[in-house]
Write a structure and sequence with these properties.
The chain is α+β, with helices and mostly antiparallel strands. Helix content is 37%, strand content 21%. Strands 12, 13, 14, 15, 16, 17, 18 and 19 form an eight-stranded antiparallel beta sheet that branches. A five-stranded antiparallel beta sheet has the order 5-6-10-8-9. Strands 1-2-4-3 form a four-stranded mixed beta sheet. A hairpin with a 4-residue loop joins strand 5 and strand 6. Helix 1 packs antiparallel against helix 3 and helix 8 packs across helix 10. The longest helix is centred in the last third of the chain and has 20 residues.
Length: 462
């Protein structure tokens, strides 16, 4: 319970205008971009918008002393309910912490506050000839702090990896208000436990990330985009595997099935060949135009060898952008096909990608459900989306059974519950199946050590 006295103390720390307590404001912080239903009980008691790590620490000291739940929040673009305040308390929004603190060009590293937008960071670095590769689909509005907390991925993961591959150090406020700094600019650092990686992907349950040190790489000099159309999913997946085995590592390799393509075609008023069952969009980069052209020729040859119906190589930056717009607008296009959509995030070994797609299709047939399948085929990350009407209780029951089986099949082929969206609320029931009881116990012991009162983002992961 947040008393009037506690509220006044917090107002003195962050300023009265940065403590929101109206019913409308609290409602606005009770949900995120996940498919978790709106529940009145999920409204925080107050919303706090600090500007500095010291303010975050001061708020946490008050929360710790009074055992008040604190749910960190960035841009609320998460897909698993990670920023929903299940226990009321404080919704701690870091969106005001937007400072790019230092660009160290000599060491190719950048230090930013948690509220910096991913797209703004990319553009800032690109202007200096430096490249920050992670690119979640929400890059235009997601924040770096949220990306680190969820270990966000993106389309370029096949070549460049995900967020944790670029995090060199963190400033973290702990549950008791202590501030620690992990990692640093030294490339080699094995002093103590790797706390940087422990907090990366911890979903706000172990500490509040306020500052991030990221490594950068040189910006690729040239890049291009190809669109490949196939008469079967197996041919599309085989093309990607052959590309990788041939030494061609695209920056991105995205796959969309027929249902996904139909959604995009309707949304963007495009004409798609009825024989098309799958589309692959791939981005390549190189140091020069000759290297770029050589990769494009090799990919075209491989695709045609596997029966590609059409190969489109972008002839301009605008054409490349038009091709990528199909993929980036896919989620909203698919969502418009039904009253409700349950979009999931599973990750399997690349070799198991075609088999996992077949299993998802079989699950759809078993439960008489339409499931659109798309994802990052280059790294085995799938996003099956169940199109449904959850107002129909009988259909809702079939949907939840289908979700359960999708997760079970992902684990059965050697995969895992999430490639980039985290566990949050939506995947809590399955965490023991993925990690085993001993694994979950280990997570809980770490949580107990860092947050003994359980006030940081309670109700998430398990």
């Amino acid at each position: 319970m947040i008393t009037k006295e506690i509220k006044e103390q917090i107002k003195k720390i962050v300023g009265p205008e940065n403590v929101l307590d109206s019913d409308l404001d609290r409602f606005g912080y009770s949900y995120d971009s996940s498919f978790v239903p709106l529940v009145p009980a999920n409204k925080p008691e107050i919303v706090v918008r600090p500007l500095t790590a010291e303010q975050v620490a001061a708020v946490m000291r008050i929360a710790c002393a009074s055992r008040i739940a604190v749910t960190p929040r960035g841009a609320s673009s998460g897909r698993t309910g990670g920023s929903i305040p299940l226990a009321g308390g404080i919704s701690l929004s870091l969106d005001r912490m937007k400072t790019i603190i230092e660009l160290d060009q000599e060491n190719m590293m950048i230090t930013v506050e948690a509220g910096v937008l991913t797209g703004d960071l990319y553009n800032y670095c690109a202007a200096k000839g430096l490249f920050y590769p992670p690119d979640p689909a929400s890059y235009k509005y997601s924040t770096i702090g949220g990306n680190v907390a969820e270990n966000a991925g993106g389309m370029r993961a096949v070549k460049y990896g995900v967020t944790n591959n670029y995090v060199m150090g963190l400033e973290v406020v702990l549950a008791d208000g202590s501030i620690i700094n992990t990692g640093g600019k030294a490339i080699k650092n094995v002093t103590g436990y790797n706390l940087t990686q422990l907090f990366t992907g911890s979903e706000g349950t172990l500490g509040i990330i306020t500052k991030v040190l990221l490594r950068l790489i040189p910006m690729p000099k040239v890049r291009n985009t190809l669109q490949l159309m196939f008469g079967s999913l197996d041919e599309a997946c085989a093309t990607i595997h052959k590309m990788l085995q041939s030494g061609i590592v695209p920056a991105a390799a995205e796959l969309m099935d027929k249902i996904s393509l139909q959604a995009v075609a309707r949304h963007r008023k495009l004409e798609i060949d009825p024989a098309t069952e799958a589309c692959v969009i791939t981005e390549i980069d190189a140091d020069n135009q000759q290297g770029l052209a050589m990769q494009a020729e090799q990919i075209e040859a491989i695709a045609k060898n596997f029966g590609a119906l059409a190969v489109r190589i972008a002839q301009s930056a605008q054409e490349a952008e038009d091709i990528w717009a199909i993929r980036r607008g896919l989620s909203s296009a698919v969502g418009a096909m039904a009253p409700d959509r349950l979009g999931e995030d599973i990750s399997v070994p690349r070799s198991a990608f075609p088999e996992m797609v077949r299993r998802i299709r079989a699950i759809g047939e078993k439960y008489d459900l339409t499931i659109a399948v798309y994802g990052h085929a280059g790294d085995g990350n799938l996003h099956p989306s169940i199109l449904c009407d959850l107002a129909d209780s009988e259909q809702a029951d079939r949907v939840h059974k289908a979700v359960h089986e999708i997760f079970a099949e992902a684990l059965a082929v050697g995969g895992t519950l999430s490639g980039e969206h985290g566990i949050g609320i939506t995947k809590r029931p399955y965490i023991s199946s993925a990690l085993g009881e001993a694994g979950v116990t280990t997570l809980k012991l770490i949580k107990q050590a860092l947050d003994p009162q359980g006030i940081l983002n309670p109700g998430k992961i398990w």
